Amino acid sequence: AQSVTQLDSQVPVFEEAPVELRCNYSSSVSVYLFWYVQYPNQGLQLLLKYLSGSTLVESINGFEAEFNKSQTSFHLRKPSVHISDTAEYFCAVSSYSSASKIIFGSGTRLSIRP
Amino acid sequence: NAGVTQTPKFQVLKTGQSMTLQCAQDMNHNSMYWYRQDPGMGLRLIYYSASEGTTDKGEVPNGYNVSRLNKREFSLRLESAAPSQTSVYFCASSGGLAGASEQFFGPGTRLTVL
């Protein structure tokens, strides 16, 4: 069985500061990893994903995540956050054998202070 | 393209009442999903349909039924609502490779059971 742990339920940071949202997973098979973002009163949207190849993946709005197989982690980082990044972020894991199902973490609420 | 649409947006029920949540997608996706989102628990899969004509239980199926009416539509029914079913419900769809595909989410239905 697969599982995802997001270690922080809330992360407050100041605008233009760097941020890291932590995600660890467990799986007995090769995994696909995702970060989804949920803005207030909206559904989730894909932010970035790791399927194979380069372990560092980037989004169009400056976020990046690195797949670390030895530490079973997929932490999300941004060097300088903006007020518009205020949202809840969900890490998720799946595999080829999971019949299109993915397992979501419990979420991390990122709040940006001016 | 509308993407994934859900109706209604809000609903208040009394304990024991029944209702059906509707979901439709216009992306020609094979797989569709129903999740519930509760504070601090992330998204939990209720039921999913990997392809037209098939449905399977997810993590929390008790108290719910689903129908994959056609490739576009996937409905969720509560036969006898309970206060524990108060939640935000999201429908999602995906296409492509099993497990590796992005899921596209609807805007959600906020359900309160009194």
Oligomeric state of the chains present here: heterodimer
Helix percentage range of chain B:
under 10%
Uncertain stretches of chain B: none
User: Describe the biggest sheet of chain A?
Assistant: 6 strands, mixed
Average pLDDT score of chain B: 93
Low-confidence stretches of chain A: none
Query: Care to count the β-strands of chain B?
Result: 11
Q: Count the helices of chain A. How many?
A: 0
Q: What's the domain count of chain A?
A: 1
Strand content of chain A: over 45%
Instruction: Give the overall shape of chain A.
Output: globular
CATH fold field value of chain A:
Immunoglobulin-like
Please give the radius of gyration of chain B in angstroms: 13 Å
Features of the shown structure:
heterodimer, A: 114 residues, mainly beta, Immunoglobulin-like, six-stranded mixed sheet, 12 strands, 51% strand, B: 114 residues, seven-stranded mixed sheet, four-stranded antiparallel sheet, globular
Describe this structure in words.
The complex is a heterodimer of chains A (114) and B (114). Chain A has one domain (3-113): Immunoglobulin-like, CATH 2.60.40. Helix content of chain A is 0%, strand content 51%. Chain A has no helices and 12 strands. The radius of gyration of chain A is 14 Å and the shape is globular. The mean pLDDT of chain A is 92. Chain B has strands at residues 4-7, 10-13, 19-25, 31-37, 43-49, 56-57, 64-68, 74-78, 87-94, 104-105, 109-113. In chain B, strands 2, 4, 5, 6, 9, 10 and 11 form a 7-stranded mixed β-sheet that branches. A 4-stranded antiparallel β-sheet of chain B has the order 1-3-8-7, with no helix packed on it. The A-B interface holds A 6, 9, 32, 34, 42-46, 49, 51, 90, 94-102, 104-107 and B 4, 31, 33, 35, 40-45, 48, 50, 56, 58, 90, 92, 94, 97-103, 105-108.
